[in-house]
Amino acid sequence: MYKEVDFENFLNYNFDLLIDARSPREYNFAHIKNAKNYYALNNEEFEEIGALYKKSKGLAKAKGASYICKNMSYHINELFQNYKIGSLVGIYCARGGKRSKAIALILAELGYRIVRLEGGYKAYRSYVSAFFQKKLNIEFLCLCGNTASGKSDLLNLLDNALNLEKLANHQGSSFGKIYGEQPSQKAFEDELFYFLKYYPYKTCFIEAESRQIGNLTLPLNLYQAMQNAKKIWCECDINFRIQRVLKNYTPMKKEIFLECVEKISPYISKEFKEKLCKNFENNNLKICIKMLFEYYDRVYKKPTKIDYFINSSNLDEAKKHLMSLNS
């Protein structure tokens, strides 16, 4: 079996395997959820064939075909060991061109049932972009509150919740980039798309965020839905807030701390900055945290209208309170 379908129909298949036939670099930048990278051309080959194609299309096609055959000789062994003949396999490349078609035809001849995505990853991205232009049919409940009031911890305890900071790999503040690199904008949107499109509940708890989370930007329809959502203020004892910061942000290397402080330097006095850095160097972390609370609590934009108040010092009790609002 060999079919070519648009993305709307592509979504309806329950594939045993979804193949991304693009180069590893393209795949690592962003890919369709659950896809595995069985590339037609590796990074170097892809660049070589692309350059050659501008000079001689015929030679580029011939050399590209030889590379694909070489790579497929490795892929086929792994595929055969993990996916029996007759398995339903989806496949795509960048634009639904020769890379995915070459692999699709080989696998179809071996007896795999093949469904190829027309237009490739580009068509998928067009579908995602259109999705983020539409109004979301989800009722959001937005958790607000000062830094370390337990908003993210609460989201992690709930089934019907979307943790944007987790998806963005960023804590949302000037000190947010502590877990390494963020995903690409496309990869971030891909995760959001699958979460929102197949979200099974009517309501969704979410943390109040600015539209920018580190280097990533929230889709406009999601951001607007958050702005229009009911607001829940999480009030928390300062000692619990301090403990959460110690748990989530330490240990922190000195150079990272200083880099983060530089980001807020335009908004704090020279004396405040010097005192903050000195306390960090002397390992007076609780004093540092209280000083940062002083800054962040002052600049945090509290919603003009708050629909509910909860105490988030005790997360289990706060969770029960949230679930009662959701019933």
UniProtKB/TrEMBL annotation:
Q: Where are the transmembrane segments?
A: none
Q: Which NCBIfam families is this protein grouped with?
A: PRK11784.1-2 (NF008750), tRNA_sel_U_synt (TIGR03167)
Q: Which GO terms describe its molecular function?
A: tRNA 2-selenouridine synthase activity
- Fetch the InterPro entries from UniProt: AAA_SelU (IPR058840), P-loop_NTPase (IPR027417), Rhodanese-like_dom (IPR001763), Rhodanese-like_dom_sf (IPR036873), SelU (IPR017582)
Cite the Pfam families for this sequence: AAA_SelU, Rhodanese
The protein, known as:
tRNA 2-selenouridine synthase
**Listed GO biological process terms:** tRNA wobble uridine modification
List, alphabetically, the Gene3D superfamilies matched: Rhodanese-like domain
Q: Which PROSITE patterns match?
A: RHODANESE_3
Q: Which keywords does the record carry?
A: Selenium
| Rhodanese domain location | 12-133
Domain of life of the organism encoding this protein? Bacteria
Q: Which organism does this sequence originate in?
A: Campylobacter armoricus
